[in-house]
Amino acid sequence: MQGFSTRAIHAGQDPDPTTGAVIPPIHPSSTYAQDGVGGTRGGYEYSRAANPTRTALQEQLAALEGGRHAFAFGSGMGASDTLLRVLMRPGDHVVIPHDAYGGTFRLVDKVLKHWGIEYTPVDLADPRALREAVRPTTTVVWAESPTNPLLGIADIPASAEIAHGAGAKLVVDNTFASPYLQQPLALGADVVLHSTTKYVGGHSDVVGGALITSDDELAEQVRFTQNAVGSVPSPFDAWLTLRGAKTLAVRMERHSDNAERIAELLTAHPAVERVLYPGLPEHPGHEIAAKQMRRFGGMVSFLAAGGSGAALRICATTKLFTLAESLGGVESLIEHPGQMTHLSVAGSMLEVPDNLVRVSVGIEDGDDLVDDLRAALDAVR
Ligand SMILES: *Cc1c(COP(=O)(O)O)cnc(C)c1O
C-alpha cells in the first residue's frame, strides 16, 4: 500500500479526464443529464444522493482510514445522528464515554431519548467497567480516544473485543487523533467517525463530518439513510475538506511537536495543577496511547491551580492563542470548556471541572506559542 501522504494527495484525485485539471473540480450541479431514462453517467442523478466532488473526498477519506467505504456529511453531528439511526431501534442501548464530546451526549440524552434509546456513560479506559455496562440490548459501543476535552484514552482493541462479544458494533470518534495518528479500523473498530471540521479540514474554514467503514452491509444502510435524511455537505465544503486533508501528515507532525513543548511548559509551571496530555508518561492512558497512536496530537488540557477565576483569566490573557471554540486548525486556540464547548453537559454526570482550560496547539512557531502561554500563566501566579 502507498504511504499516508501519497494517498492523501492522490486517492480519488486522478486528473479530470476531459480537461486534464489536476485538482478535482467543484461540481455545483444539483442534477445530471441522463442518456435515456435511467441512463446515468457514472451513477450521478441528484446531488443529495451523490456528487462527484463529494465522491473525490470520500475516496480520499476511505484511503486515509484504510476503509472500503467513506461518507462525507454536512457536520460531525450529522454523521453521528445518521449512524445512530442506522444502528439503533427503540429499546436499544448504547454505551458512551463518561467524558464524551458534549454534542454527542446532547444528541443521545436530549434528542434520541425521545425515540426510546437508552445509554450508559462509562469510563472506557477501564475495560472491566465496559464489560459490566453492556446489556443484551446494547447495539453500539461508542468510543472516543483521546476524549474531548479531558484527553482520556480508550483501549480500542479491548473495547472492540467486548463490543463484539456482546453483539454490538464499536464506533470510534477519531476526531482528536486524525487518521494520521490513529487507525481504529485496523484496531478492531467497525466504524470511524470524524468531525472533519477539526484536523482533517485543518484550516477552520469548513464544517463537516465523515463515517468510514469496511462493513459492506453497514455501508449500504448508511448510504440509504444519509440520502433519506439528507445530511450532506455542499460541493464547495467537500472540496475545501479534500484540499485541507492533503497536508494532514505534515500538519499533525507539527501539531504534535508544538503540543509536546506546551505540555512541557505547563508541567513545570506553578500556575498549573495538572496537565492532561497522553504524551506525558504520567498520563494514565500513556502506555495504551503509545501502542495505538503514532504520536500524541495537538490537544492539551490543564487544570489551573488558582481555580476557575485563574482559568478564565488565562483564557482572556493569551494573544496568539485565540479565545474560541473548535480545534484542529493551523492557528492556536484556547478555551474554557465548562462555559464554552461543554456547557451542554453542565449539571449532568459529564460535567467538566471549572478550572479546566483546553488548548488546540496550532502549527505556528513553537517558541512564539511557548512565550505567549507562559506570559498568561505568569500573570495569574
Ligand atoms: C467537534 C466534534 C464533534 C462534532 O462535530 P461537528 O463538525 O461540530 O458537528 C464530534 N466529536 C468530537 C470529538 C468533536 O470534537
From TrEMBL:
The keyword Flavoprotein does not apply. The modification N6-(pyridoxal phosphate)lysine is found at K198. Its cofactor is pyridoxal 5'-phosphate. It comes from Pseudonocardia endophytica. Belongs to the trans-sulfuration enzymes family. This is Cystathionine gamma-synthase. It catalyses: O-succinyl-L-homoserine + L-cysteine = L,L-cystathionine + succinate + H(+). Gene3D superfamilies: Aspartate Aminotransferase, domain 1, Type I PLP-dependent aspartate aminotransferase-like (Major domain). Residues 1-38 are annotated as: Disordered. One of its GO terms (cellular component) is cytoplasm. It is an enzyme of class 2 (transferase). GO terms for biological process: cysteine biosynthetic process via cystathionine; transsulfuration. The lineage of its organism: Bacteria, Bacillati, Actinomycetota, Actinomycetes, Pseudonocardiales. Pfam families: Cys_Met_Meta_PP. PROSITE patterns: CYS_MET_METAB_PP. PANTHER family: CYSTATHIONINE GAMMA-LYASE, TRANS-SULFURATION ENZYME FAMILY MEMBER. Its EC number is 2.5.1.48.
